[in-house]
Design goal:
The protein has 4 helices and no strands. It has 86 residues and is mainly α.
């Protein structure tokens, strides 16, 4: 019987599952003020390009915990579009 070698993708999936289990155990709800977060990001990195940030989010194993997290992500992205008009 041959064993299947684990690939990097398998490792990533395992890591994501473990992260989800840790989140579920803590059951913590963090609510960040979008305006404060966006202002901080802009001040911390004056050359921040929100279009590049969006491109970095385009990856196969992006984990979004729940509907609320997805809604918040879209709020951030909509605000970023207003800031840089991309």
């Amino acid at each position: 019987m041959t064993q299947k070698k684990n690939t990097f993708d398998d490792w990533q999936k395992i890591q994501l599952e473990e992260q989800q289990q840790q989140i579920d155990k803590k059951n913590v709800t963090n609510i960040w003020n979008i305006d404060v977060f966006m202002q901080f990001c802009g001040e911390a990195n004056l050359e921040l390009n929100w279009a590049n940030v969006m491109k970095k989010l385009d990856r196969p194993h992006l984990f979004i915990r729940d509907e609320k997290a997805l809604t918040n992500l879209f709020k951030y992205l909509q605000r970023a579009r207003k800031i840089q008009n991309f």
